[in-house]
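Write out a record, focusing on structure:
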Amino acid sequence: MSLNNQVLDKPISAELPYVEANLSYLVPMAEKPVNYTYEPPAGIPRTNATYQTHKLPIYNARSISGNISLDREGFAFTGHNTNVRNFYDEDEVRRVYYPEAEQLLKEVTGGTKVVVFDHTLRNASQSKPGENNIKEPALRVHNDFTAKSGYTRAHLELAARGIDDIDALLKQRFAIINVWRAIAQPIQESPLAVCDAQSIAPTDIVAGDLVYRDRVGETYGITYNSKHKWFYFPQMHRDEALFIKCFDSAEDGRARFAGHTAFEDPTSPANAPPRESIELRTFVFYPA
């Protein structure tokens, strides 16, 4: 079931059906972008970054899902049944979904060890900042980790779990892969678009500080490039999983960072229910 290193029968092309939508890109800036995850002290803006929308085609990748791989495009897709009944039940997610995802990722990637370290629920109708951990869809083009923060977050999370020989573990190849899934009705509103990692130039990605109350993380904002190729899987339902590679320690030509963003789908019904989804963040360790 590996979704790595597959060979394309034919190249991904513009023959696929698509929608056109506005994607919000970081505007190039001289200073380092800073985004606060909470309301900052008086006089400090929530972010010093500005964003500009660009209308782009977003291709329906369902018909080519078997020819897309994590190591080439930086994302992948598969059907996968889950036994979770209520994704809003924190205990059930950790007790049932985490082990399911760990096993799935081993099968998909060939990884020998998988650690789920975080998850985020998204539902605009239930998001109450400061009161719960449910967020709205993220409508900016970004990647969750950088070449630096992939390592720093791994050190932090593995140490918190009492794992020994962290330095030795991080000398072997590892990746941070998100597992994204619908958790209620099929997604009609604010679906997720993923950018082919091969179409992102090194100069397109900009490291920025993500400020929490107790630490500072680092993520990539992404600036506009007309060569970016965007894809989505419309009408995703709860028995399908989308994988997004947000970091790879290997620097050998394999995909390392796949930009992604929610977008306003112009074909969504006006009365479409708010998107309900969950994303897991995981470390995948490959054979030494």
